[in-house]
Amino acid sequence: MIDEFDDALALANGPQPTAPRDPAPAAPAPRPAPPVQAAHIAPDWDTARATAHRAVRPLAPRRLPLDLALGHTLAAPLTALTDLPAFDTSAMDGWAVAGPGPWRLADDGPGALAGRPAARPLTDGEAVPIATGARVPEGATAVLRAERGTSAGRRLTGPNPQPGADIRPRGQECRTGTELLPARTPLTPVTLGLAAAAGYDQLPVRPRPRAEVLILGDELLFRGLPHDGRIRDALGPMTGPWLTALGAQVMVTRRLGDDAEALYEAMSTTRADLLVTTGSTAAGPMDHLRAVLDRLGARLLISGVAVRPGHPMLLAELPDGRPLVGLPGNPLAAVSGLLTLAQPLLRALGDRPAPAEAEAALTDAVRGHPRDTRLVPVAAPEPGLVRPLSYAGPAMLRGIAAASALAVIPPGGAEAGAPVRLLDLPDA
């Protein structure tokens, strides 16, 4: 469905290419609405996001090996299973020395090497070659760096290092039982490295929620140029990767056209934790989504949101409790639905903390809807400032493709210099 108000605002914010529209068809005769289409008052944008977050519980925890845990969320605090480091280690290549120099080299062997048992204990005046990461022998008081010492035969000379110099003492980073990361921490490459160093082979995690995407609409083409009234599908290539960036594991993207039976079958048999549909959220003659939801016995939690673009978005609970997000068919309106409903749902399912909110000041005034929040693509010309972008109509992606964020414009609009909230956009 094309939102005329949104298109008018997009034109007001910058030059836009337009195309003539076909005359609106005559309204069909009123008919009784099925239960899932019962009248709802569209919640405001913040309320809709909060409702979506409360609609589900976190997924049950499971244990995964470290090489499969990337992108999941810790289900319990990460506590150290060992001291870090587990023993005194050398921070540099050089010599482990005992007391002040000059020193006599303890033996003619390779010395203390990383991954080998400790060299024999040292007595005052002795030294032994040592490699970075090697266990410091008992009795050593410091490490003399290789570039500062000179050895000749069995004799080592150089400046006396301070006691403890270039030695990483046992437990310097943490002691056994120390909490290193709290529960709900997303697992990144760095946190997985920390877990491995702390002694873990597996981790208790909240798994990435599994998502399935259903692309609806007979008017969509999946290759080639638009022709004969049909248009290219922009949502299929975009929705799955966007859900992945929001924390989902996308199982499949399926193209169903306007086949109500195929939609019913897909919704009845899904194994996903979150089902996402694109298009068919309005009440056109080929919009079957609400009728299929009613046939399934789904419960409608949100039927429209007071936000532009994207106000026809919906949130439903399937009979088995799984959530379904219905995205509008216009591309930027669908992005609005992803950030309004899918993002908080995925955060709740994965038990992830809410991201810190960012703000910036507008370089230019932005017209607002009299009652609804607007989400407007913006670019950041310098830190603390954002500039509204053109090509921001509900059917357009050109503006958001060049954007660094979406600005949350309150009802009534915002003047130049006014601070606005920002929604980050995925960059990978």
TrEMBL record:
The biased composition feature labelled Pro residues covers 17-35
InterPro entries reported for this sequence: MoaB/Mog-like_dom_sf (IPR036425), MoaB/Mog_dom (IPR001453), MoeA-like (IPR038987), MoeA_C_domain_IV (IPR005111), MoeA_C_domain_IV_sf (IPR036688), MoeA_linker/N (IPR005110), MoeA_linker/N_sf (IPR036135)
Q: Which reaction does it catalyse?
A: adenylyl-molybdopterin + molybdate = Mo-molybdopterin + AMP + H(+)
Q: Where is the MoaB/Mog domain?
A: 212-348
Which pathway does this polypeptide act in?
Cofactor biosynthesis; molybdopterin biosynthesis
User: Which SMART domains is this protein grouped with?
Assistant: MoCF_biosynth
Entry cofactors: Mg(2+)
EC number(s) from the headed UniProt entry: 2.10.1.1
What ranges does the record give for the region Disordered, renumbered to this chain? 1-37, 150-171
Per its UniProt record, what CDD domains does this chain match?
A: MoeA (cd00887)
* Keyword vocabulary terms for this entry: Magnesium, Metal-binding, Molybdenum, Molybdenum cofactor biosynthesis, Transferase
Q: Which family does it belong to?
A: Belongs to the MoeA family.
Instruction: Write out the function statement from the record.
Output: Catalyzes the insertion of molybdate into adenylated molybdopterin with the concomitant release of AMP.
Q: Which PANTHER family match?
A: GEPHYRIN, MOLYBDOPTERIN BIOSYNTHESIS PROTEIN
Q: What is this protein called?
A: Molybdopterin molybdenumtransferase
